[in-house]
Write a structure and sequence with these properties.
alpha+beta, six-stranded antiparallel sheet, 2 helices, 16 strands, 21% helix
Length: 326
Protein backbone atom coordinates (compact mmCIF):
# COMPACT_ATOMS: atom_id res chain seq x y z
CA UNK A 1 0.00 0.00 0.00
CA UNK A 2 1.41 3.39 -0.96
CA UNK A 3 1.68 6.12 1.66
CA UNK A 4 -0.70 9.05 1.13
CA UNK A 5 0.64 12.61 0.83
CA UNK A 6 -1.75 15.56 1.08
CA UNK A 7 -0.61 18.22 -1.47
CA UNK A 8 -0.81 22.03 -1.34
CA UNK A 9 -0.40 22.19 2.46
CA UNK A 10 2.62 23.78 4.09
CA UNK A 11 4.28 22.21 5.88
CA UNK A 12 3.67 18.91 4.04
CA UNK A 13 1.65 16.33 5.98
CA UNK A 14 2.60 12.67 5.62
CA UNK A 15 0.20 9.97 6.85
CA UNK A 16 1.79 6.58 7.41
CA UNK A 17 -0.02 3.24 7.56
CA UNK A 18 0.16 3.31 11.38
CA UNK A 19 -1.17 6.90 11.42
CA UNK A 20 -4.14 5.87 9.24
CA UNK A 21 -4.94 2.94 11.54
CA UNK A 22 -4.81 5.22 14.60
CA UNK A 23 -7.11 7.76 12.92
CA UNK A 24 -9.64 5.03 12.06
CA UNK A 25 -9.54 3.70 15.63
CA UNK A 26 -10.08 7.25 16.92
CA UNK A 27 -13.14 7.70 14.68
CA UNK A 28 -14.62 4.44 16.02
CA UNK A 29 -14.02 5.60 19.61
CA UNK A 30 -15.82 8.90 18.89
CA UNK A 31 -18.78 7.02 17.39
CA UNK A 32 -18.90 4.73 20.47
CA UNK A 33 -18.99 7.85 22.68
CA UNK A 34 -21.91 9.26 20.66
CA UNK A 35 -23.82 5.98 21.12
CA UNK A 36 -23.30 6.32 24.87
CA UNK A 37 -24.83 9.82 24.78
CA UNK A 38 -27.83 8.47 22.83
CA UNK A 39 -28.44 5.69 25.40
CA UNK A 40 -28.17 8.26 28.22
CA UNK A 41 -30.74 10.49 26.46
CA UNK A 42 -33.16 7.54 26.08
CA UNK A 43 -32.87 6.82 29.82
CA UNK A 44 -33.71 10.47 30.61
CA UNK A 45 -36.72 10.20 28.26
CA UNK A 46 -38.09 7.30 30.35
CA UNK A 47 -37.37 9.15 33.63
CA UNK A 48 -39.25 12.19 32.31
CA UNK A 49 -42.22 10.04 31.23
CA UNK A 50 -42.61 8.33 34.63
CA UNK A 51 -42.05 11.57 36.56
CA UNK A 52 -38.63 11.03 38.17
CA UNK A 53 -37.40 14.09 36.23
CA UNK A 54 -39.34 17.37 36.71
CA UNK A 55 -41.37 18.98 33.96
CA UNK A 56 -44.33 16.63 33.30
CA UNK A 57 -47.47 18.29 34.76
CA UNK A 58 -49.91 15.43 34.02
CA UNK A 59 -48.92 11.83 34.96
CA UNK A 60 -48.29 9.64 31.93
CA UNK A 61 -50.92 6.98 31.13
CA UNK A 62 -50.06 3.34 30.47
CA UNK A 63 -50.58 4.05 26.74
CA UNK A 64 -48.05 6.89 26.93
CA UNK A 65 -45.57 4.63 28.72
CA UNK A 66 -46.06 1.93 26.07
CA UNK A 67 -45.43 4.47 23.28
CA UNK A 68 -42.31 5.76 25.05
CA UNK A 69 -41.18 2.17 25.62
CA UNK A 70 -41.66 1.34 21.92
CA UNK A 71 -39.65 4.44 20.94
CA UNK A 72 -36.83 3.57 23.36
CA UNK A 73 -36.80 -0.06 22.19
CA UNK A 74 -36.57 1.00 18.51
CA UNK A 75 -33.72 3.41 19.32
CA UNK A 76 -31.83 0.71 21.27
CA UNK A 77 -32.27 -1.70 18.33
CA UNK A 78 -30.78 0.95 16.01
CA UNK A 79 -27.92 1.48 18.48
CA UNK A 80 -27.31 -2.30 18.55
CA UNK A 81 -27.13 -2.44 14.75
CA UNK A 82 -24.73 0.53 14.73
CA UNK A 83 -22.62 -1.23 17.38
CA UNK A 84 -22.43 -4.36 15.19
CA UNK A 85 -21.24 -2.19 12.27
CA UNK A 86 -18.59 -0.53 14.45
CA UNK A 87 -17.42 -3.96 15.66
CA UNK A 88 -17.09 -5.13 12.05
CA UNK A 89 -15.07 -2.00 11.18
CA UNK A 90 -12.86 -2.54 14.23
CA UNK A 91 -12.22 -6.20 13.32
CA UNK A 92 -11.25 -5.20 9.77
CA UNK A 93 -8.88 -2.48 11.01
CA UNK A 94 -7.22 -4.75 13.56
CA UNK A 95 -6.67 -7.41 10.89
CA UNK A 96 -4.62 -4.98 8.72
CA UNK A 97 -0.86 -5.62 9.17
CA UNK A 98 1.14 -2.57 10.22
CA UNK A 99 3.99 -3.47 7.84
CA UNK A 100 3.74 -2.39 4.19
CA UNK A 101 4.68 -5.91 3.09
CA UNK A 102 2.10 -7.67 5.25
CA UNK A 103 2.70 -10.21 8.03
CA UNK A 104 5.72 -12.48 8.39
CA UNK A 105 5.96 -15.60 6.24
CA UNK A 106 4.83 -18.77 7.99
CA UNK A 107 7.13 -21.78 8.46
CA UNK A 108 7.45 -24.24 5.57
CA UNK A 109 5.43 -27.39 6.14
CA UNK A 110 7.10 -30.79 6.48
CA UNK A 111 7.48 -33.15 3.51
CA UNK A 112 4.73 -35.71 3.15
CA UNK A 113 5.27 -39.28 4.37
CA UNK A 114 5.68 -42.20 1.90
CA UNK A 115 8.31 -43.68 -0.44
CA UNK A 116 8.65 -42.89 -4.15
CA UNK A 117 7.60 -45.77 -6.37
CA UNK A 118 10.13 -47.56 -8.63
CA UNK A 119 10.53 -46.48 -12.27
CA UNK A 120 8.94 -48.90 -14.70
CA UNK A 121 11.03 -50.77 -17.32
CA UNK A 122 11.44 -49.26 -20.81
CA UNK A 123 9.58 -51.15 -23.50
CA UNK A 124 11.40 -52.80 -26.42
CA UNK A 125 11.89 -50.87 -29.66
CA UNK A 126 9.72 -52.07 -32.54
CA UNK A 127 11.32 -53.93 -35.50
CA UNK A 128 11.22 -52.67 -39.09
CA UNK A 129 10.20 -49.46 -40.82
CA UNK A 130 6.64 -48.31 -40.56
CA UNK A 131 4.92 -48.44 -43.93
CA UNK A 132 3.31 -45.43 -45.60
CA UNK A 133 -0.35 -44.77 -44.85
CA UNK A 134 -2.65 -45.80 -47.66
CA UNK A 135 -4.97 -43.38 -49.45
CA UNK A 136 -8.48 -42.98 -48.04
CA UNK A 137 -11.12 -44.72 -50.10
CA UNK A 138 -14.11 -42.93 -51.63
CA UNK A 139 -17.21 -42.60 -49.46
CA UNK A 140 -19.96 -44.98 -50.46
CA UNK A 141 -23.46 -43.83 -51.41
CA UNK A 142 -26.02 -43.49 -48.63
CA UNK A 143 -28.35 -46.43 -48.44
CA UNK A 144 -32.13 -46.17 -48.83
CA UNK A 145 -34.05 -45.62 -45.55
CA UNK A 146 -35.90 -48.73 -44.54
CA UNK A 147 -39.67 -48.86 -44.08
CA UNK A 148 -41.09 -48.03 -40.65
CA UNK A 149 -41.93 -51.12 -38.68
CA UNK A 150 -45.46 -51.93 -37.56
CA UNK A 151 -46.65 -50.56 -34.20
CA UNK A 152 -46.46 -53.11 -31.44
CA UNK A 153 -49.46 -54.22 -29.40
CA UNK A 154 -50.48 -52.14 -26.39
CA UNK A 155 -49.21 -53.61 -23.17
CA UNK A 156 -51.51 -54.88 -20.44
CA UNK A 157 -52.86 -52.35 -17.93
CA UNK A 158 -50.94 -52.33 -14.67
CA UNK A 159 -52.49 -53.34 -11.38
CA UNK A 160 -54.51 -50.71 -9.50
CA UNK A 161 -52.61 -49.10 -6.64
CA UNK A 162 -53.61 -49.46 -3.01
CA UNK A 163 -56.53 -47.29 -1.86
CA UNK A 164 -55.41 -44.22 0.08
CA UNK A 165 -56.76 -43.34 3.51
CA UNK A 166 -60.32 -42.03 3.47
CA UNK A 167 -60.86 -38.37 4.42
CA UNK A 168 -63.10 -38.06 7.44
CA UNK A 169 -66.04 -35.66 7.60
CA UNK A 170 -66.07 -35.48 11.43
CA UNK A 171 -65.53 -31.80 12.31
CA UNK A 172 -67.14 -28.64 13.63
CA UNK A 173 -66.48 -24.89 13.67
CA UNK A 174 -68.12 -22.60 16.26
CA UNK A 175 -68.26 -18.84 16.95
CA UNK A 176 -68.59 -16.92 20.23
CA UNK A 177 -69.28 -13.19 19.77
CA UNK A 178 -68.50 -11.83 23.24
CA UNK A 179 -68.25 -12.76 26.92
CA UNK A 180 -66.82 -10.96 29.98
CA UNK A 181 -64.78 -12.99 32.50
CA UNK A 182 -62.65 -12.21 35.54
CA UNK A 183 -61.94 -15.78 36.71
CA UNK A 184 -61.03 -19.15 35.18
CA UNK A 185 -63.92 -20.65 33.22
CA UNK A 186 -64.85 -22.87 30.25
CA UNK A 187 -66.18 -20.93 27.25
CA UNK A 188 -69.85 -21.82 26.63
CA UNK A 189 -72.90 -20.75 24.56
CA UNK A 190 -71.30 -21.12 21.11
CA UNK A 191 -73.02 -20.57 17.77
CA UNK A 192 -72.65 -22.95 14.81
CA UNK A 193 -74.86 -20.95 12.44
CA UNK A 194 -73.55 -20.45 8.87
CA UNK A 195 -70.81 -19.84 7.84
CA UNK A 196 -69.84 -22.02 10.83
CA UNK A 197 -71.06 -25.63 11.13
CA UNK A 198 -72.05 -28.21 13.72
CA UNK A 199 -71.22 -31.82 14.58
CA UNK A 200 -73.35 -34.32 16.54
CA UNK A 201 -70.33 -34.69 18.84
CA UNK A 202 -70.28 -30.98 19.83
CA UNK A 203 -72.62 -29.36 22.38
CA UNK A 204 -72.71 -25.60 21.65
CA UNK A 205 -74.40 -24.73 24.97
CA UNK A 206 -71.78 -26.39 27.20
CA UNK A 207 -68.91 -25.92 24.76
CA UNK A 208 -67.92 -29.60 25.20
CA UNK A 209 -66.79 -31.86 22.32
CA UNK A 210 -67.07 -35.65 22.86
CA UNK A 211 -64.55 -37.59 20.74
CA UNK A 212 -66.56 -40.07 18.59
CA UNK A 213 -63.65 -42.35 17.62
CA UNK A 214 -59.98 -42.84 18.47
CA UNK A 215 -57.72 -40.99 16.02
CA UNK A 216 -55.70 -37.88 15.26
CA UNK A 217 -57.50 -34.52 15.52
CA UNK A 218 -56.51 -30.99 14.46
CA UNK A 219 -57.57 -28.31 16.97
CA UNK A 220 -57.53 -24.55 16.29
CA UNK A 221 -58.78 -21.50 18.19
CA UNK A 222 -58.47 -17.75 17.57
CA UNK A 223 -59.33 -15.58 20.61
CA UNK A 224 -59.59 -11.78 20.40
CA UNK A 225 -59.71 -9.94 23.72
CA UNK A 226 -59.43 -6.55 25.38
CA UNK A 227 -59.34 -5.41 29.01
CA UNK A 228 -62.47 -3.60 30.23
CA UNK A 229 -60.40 -1.29 32.44
CA UNK A 230 -56.86 -0.02 32.78
CA UNK A 231 -54.56 -2.33 34.75
CA UNK A 232 -53.47 -0.70 38.02
CA UNK A 233 -50.02 -1.73 39.17
CA UNK A 234 -47.57 -4.34 37.97
CA UNK A 235 -48.35 -8.08 37.83
CA UNK A 236 -46.27 -10.52 39.84
CA UNK A 237 -44.14 -13.13 38.02
CA UNK A 238 -46.50 -15.89 39.16
CA UNK A 239 -49.48 -14.36 37.31
CA UNK A 240 -49.54 -15.95 33.82
CA UNK A 241 -53.08 -15.91 32.32
CA UNK A 242 -53.68 -18.15 29.30
CA UNK A 243 -56.22 -19.91 27.11
CA UNK A 244 -56.08 -23.72 27.06
CA UNK A 245 -57.67 -26.56 25.11
CA UNK A 246 -58.19 -29.15 27.85
CA UNK A 247 -59.15 -32.82 27.94
CA UNK A 248 -61.87 -32.72 30.63
CA UNK A 249 -62.40 -36.47 31.02
CA UNK A 250 -61.30 -39.16 31.71
CA UNK A 251 -58.29 -37.23 33.15
CA UNK A 252 -57.98 -33.44 33.16
CA UNK A 253 -55.09 -32.61 30.80
CA UNK A 254 -53.89 -29.40 29.11
CA UNK A 255 -53.51 -30.23 25.39
CA UNK A 256 -52.72 -26.82 23.81
CA UNK A 257 -51.79 -23.64 25.74
CA UNK A 258 -51.62 -20.03 24.51
CA UNK A 259 -50.28 -17.47 27.02
CA UNK A 260 -51.40 -13.83 27.03
CA UNK A 261 -48.82 -11.39 25.58
CA UNK A 262 -47.06 -9.73 28.53
CA UNK A 263 -45.16 -6.43 28.52
CA UNK A 264 -42.14 -6.89 30.81
CA UNK A 265 -40.04 -3.72 31.34
CA UNK A 266 -37.17 -3.53 33.84
CA UNK A 267 -34.93 -0.46 33.64
CA UNK A 268 -32.64 -0.39 36.66
CA UNK A 269 -33.47 2.44 39.10
CA UNK A 270 -36.03 3.84 36.62
CA UNK A 271 -38.98 1.54 35.86
CA UNK A 272 -40.18 -1.99 36.59
CA UNK A 273 -43.46 -2.95 34.89
CA UNK A 274 -45.14 -6.26 34.04
CA UNK A 275 -48.65 -6.20 32.52
CA UNK A 276 -50.72 -7.91 29.84
CA UNK A 277 -51.44 -5.89 26.70
CA UNK A 278 -54.73 -3.99 26.74
CA UNK A 279 -55.91 -5.79 23.59
CA UNK A 280 -54.62 -8.63 21.46
CA UNK A 281 -55.20 -11.93 19.66
CA UNK A 282 -54.16 -15.37 20.95
CA UNK A 283 -53.97 -18.30 18.51
CA UNK A 284 -53.92 -21.96 19.53
CA UNK A 285 -53.21 -24.73 16.99
CA UNK A 286 -52.02 -28.32 17.23
CA UNK A 287 -52.62 -31.95 16.22
CA UNK A 288 -53.32 -34.42 19.05
CA UNK A 289 -54.12 -38.13 19.48
CA UNK A 290 -57.52 -38.57 21.20
CA UNK A 291 -59.46 -41.61 22.38
CA UNK A 292 -63.14 -42.35 21.84
CA UNK A 293 -65.18 -40.87 24.70
CA UNK A 294 -62.69 -38.12 25.62
CA UNK A 295 -64.38 -34.76 26.33
CA UNK A 296 -62.66 -31.56 25.15
CA UNK A 297 -63.26 -27.89 26.04
CA UNK A 298 -61.76 -24.42 25.51
CA UNK A 299 -60.92 -22.67 28.81
CA UNK A 300 -59.80 -19.26 30.08
CA UNK A 301 -57.22 -19.84 32.88
CA UNK A 302 -56.72 -16.69 35.00
CA UNK A 303 -53.68 -17.93 36.97
CA UNK A 304 -54.04 -15.05 39.46
CA UNK A 305 -55.28 -12.29 37.08
CA UNK A 306 -58.43 -10.60 38.46
CA UNK A 307 -58.95 -7.95 35.76
CA UNK A 308 -62.23 -8.14 33.79
CA UNK A 309 -61.60 -9.32 30.22
CA UNK A 310 -63.95 -8.69 27.28
CA UNK A 311 -63.41 -11.87 25.24
CA UNK A 312 -64.28 -11.34 21.61
CA UNK A 313 -62.49 -7.98 21.56
CA UNK A 314 -64.24 -5.16 19.79
CA UNK A 315 -66.56 -7.46 17.83
CA UNK A 316 -63.99 -9.77 16.22
CA UNK A 317 -65.24 -12.70 18.34
CA UNK A 318 -63.74 -16.13 19.05
CA UNK A 319 -63.55 -19.04 16.56
CA UNK A 320 -62.93 -22.64 17.68
CA UNK A 321 -62.78 -25.74 15.46
CA UNK A 322 -61.86 -29.44 15.62
CA UNK A 323 -61.24 -31.69 12.56
CA UNK A 324 -60.59 -35.42 12.63
CA UNK A 325 -57.57 -36.27 10.45
CA UNK A 326 -57.37 -40.08 10.80
Amino acid sequence: MSQANIPNITPAITVTRDDAINLLLTSIAIEELSLGHIIHAEAEKLQYAIGTLPGLTVPASISDLLLVNASVRQTLQDVARKEMLLQSKLDNILSVPSSSTGGITGATGSTGVGTTGATGATGATGVGITGATGATGATGATGITGATGATGETGATGATGATGPAFTTENFSAYLSAVTLSDSSQLVNWSTASPYYDSPSFNPLTGTYTVPATGTYAIKATINYQTSEAIAGSLGPEITPAFEVQRITPTATSLIIGDFPVLNVNIELVLTLRAILGAGTITLAGDVQLNAGDTIGLFYVANGLTTNLDLGGGGEGIVWSIHRLT
